[in-house]
Amino acid sequence: MKPTPSPTQTAAMRAEVIGAGLAGCEAAWALANRGAEVTLYEMKPAKKSPAHRYTGFAELVCSNSLKASRVGSAAGMLKEEMRMLGSLVMEAAAHTSVEAGGALAVNRTDFSDYITDKIRSHPRITVNEREVTEFPAENTVIATGPLTSEGFADVIYEKLGKALSFYDAAAPIVTAESIDMSKAFLASRYDKGGADYINCPLSREEYEVFYDALVNAETAPLHEFDDLTVYEGCMPVEVLAKRGADSVRYGCMKPVGLTDPRTGRRPYAAVQLRKENREGTLYNIVGFQTNLKFGEQKRVFGLIPGLENAEFMRYGVMHRNTFLNSPALLDSGFKLKGSANIYFAGQMTGVEGYTESAASGIIAGINLYRALNGQAPLTLPRTCMTGALAAHVSTENADFQPMGANMGILPELGTHIKSKQERYEAIAARGLKDLENALKEV
User: Fold this and answer.
1) Sheet harboring 14-18: ordered strands across?
2) Which phi and psi angles does 18 have, rounded to 5°?
3) How many Cβ atoms from other residues are within 10 Å of residue 321's Cβ?
4) C-alpha distances in Å from residue 305, one per residue of 72, 171, 213, 298, 381
5) Taking a C-beta distance cutoff of 8 angstroms, is the pair 267, 292 a contact?
6) Which residue from 34, 187, 210, 420 has the least number of CB within 10 angstroms?
7) How far is Cα 120 from Cα 45, in angstroms, rounded to an integer?
8) Helix or strand or coil: residue 388?
C-alpha cells in the first residue's frame, strides 16, 4: 500500500513519516511544529512486530532507561542537545521519569501515552493506522525501525540493496513484592542520586554456581539466520558470559560502588534491578537481556540471591534487528542520496540506542522541512554528539556497525586535561556551545 496524503491536508507543504517509534514521532513533531502538514503512518495496533506489546507510539522495547543524565557524559550530552533541538522525547521523559540514580529512566506506558497524546492531538499531524508496503516517491521520513515489517523490509531491500542484520534482546521484568529483600538491598552506585536500585549481592561461590548454570542453559531457537550476530549494545547475558568467567562480573554484574550492608564490604558480584514504573511495583533486571527459554530464565535467574521466588511479568526475548548500509546510502542529514527528499531515521540507520534514534528523527524532520522550504540542510558540528553520530552513519566505512553516543567519536580537545571527568565536561561544553552557535545561523 502506497502512502498518500490525507485529504484533510490542504497546505502546500506536506510531508509523510512512516513509523511512530521514537524517531518517527520526533520527525513528525519537528515537521509539524515548523508548519508542515504531516501524515504519520503506523501499522499498530492492527499489526505488531514480534518484540512490540503496547499499542501506543514510541514503545520502549529493550529497557526503560535513557542512560546517564550528567551532561558531562556522552548520553547526557546527547540529551541536552535534543532539548536544544526541541525534542518531544525529552519532554515526555521529564514528565514520566522514575528514580534511577544518575540515569534517566521512565515509566514505559506513561512515556508512550504522553507521546501518543501529543502526536494525535497536534493540529498538523494526521495519523493513518495502516502498514505501508510500497517505497515512497518523495518528501518522506522512513523511520520503521530495526523491526520493520517483512513486507516493507523487502521493498527497502529491493530498492536499496543489501542491509545489515543483527539480533537484539530485551531483559526480564519481575514484581517488586516477589524479591526477597532480606537478601537484597537498596542503593545506587557510589550513592549517586537516591537508593534507586535493588541490588542482589553474590559471594564468589554463589557467582560460580550461577555462572555455570548460565553458560550451560538452553536457549530458544532462532529461525531467521543460521549464524548469530549479536547487537553489542544489547547483548544477551548468556552470550556475554561465554566470553569468559569474569565477563559478566565486569559487565552487568559488576559490584563497584556498592557495599553490602550485611557484610560492610563490596560483594564479589551484584545484580541490579531498576524500577519499571513510578509506583515501584515492577523492576527489570538491568543488563540481563536474554534468549534463554522461559523455563530456563526462571531456573537460572532464580539462583541469584533474592530472586529465588521472583514472579516474572515479562520474560526476556530476542528478535532480529536490521540496519541499512548507511554510509553507502545516506548523507549527513539522513537523506537518501539522489532521492527526491527521502530521509531515513532511527536505529535502522545504524545509530544505537533510544536517544540516538530519537535524535536522528529530529534531524531528519528538520532537514525535510528545510528541503520543502527551499533551504539548505542543517549542518551539525562534528563536535556535538548528534553531529558525530550523523557523521558516523554517512562516512564511508567497509566495516560499518551500529554506534551509540560515546566520547570516542568526538574530536579531541586542543589541550590536555588529565582528569577524565573534567575532560569529558570540557568536551561536552565545547559541543553544546558549537551546536548553540550553529542553531543561531539557521
Assistant:
1) 125-128, 37-41, 14-18, 140-142, 342-344
2) -110, 115
3) 26
4) 35, 18, 14, 13, 48
5) no
6) 420
7) 14
8) helix
Collapsed DSSP state (helix, strand, coil) of residue 437: helix
204, 333: one domain = no
Taking the C-alpha atoms of residue 300 and residue 368, their distance in angstroms, rounded to an integer, is: 49
**How far apart (Å, rounded) are the C-alpha atoms in residues 248 and 285?**
13
Is residue 205 a part of any domain in this protein? yes
How many domains are there within the chain? 2
Helix (H, G, I), strand (E, B) or coil at 387: helix
Instruction: Give the C-alpha distances (Å, rounded to integers) separating 281 from 49, 98, 150, 284, 307.
Output: 27, 12, 36, 11, 15
Q: Provide the CA 235 distance to its chain's centre, in angstroms.
A: 13
CB 148 within 8 A of CB 349: no
Q: Report the predicted TM-score, pTM, of the whole model to 2 decimal places.
A: 0.75
* Rg value, the chain, Cα: 22
Q: Average pLDDT per run of 10 along the chain, which is 442 residues long?
A: 45 87 98 97 83 84 88 96 98 95 92 98 97 95 88 88 71 91 94 88 97 95 55 79 94 95 96 87 91 95 97 82 87 96 95 94 98 95 96 85 84 88 95 96 76
Question: What are 43's three cell numbers?
Answer: 501499522
Query: Do 153 and 203 belong together in one domain?
Result: no
Provide the residue range defining the domain that includes 407: 14-166+320-440
Residue 309 burial by Cβ neighbours in a 10 Å radius (0-12, 13-18, 19+) = exposed
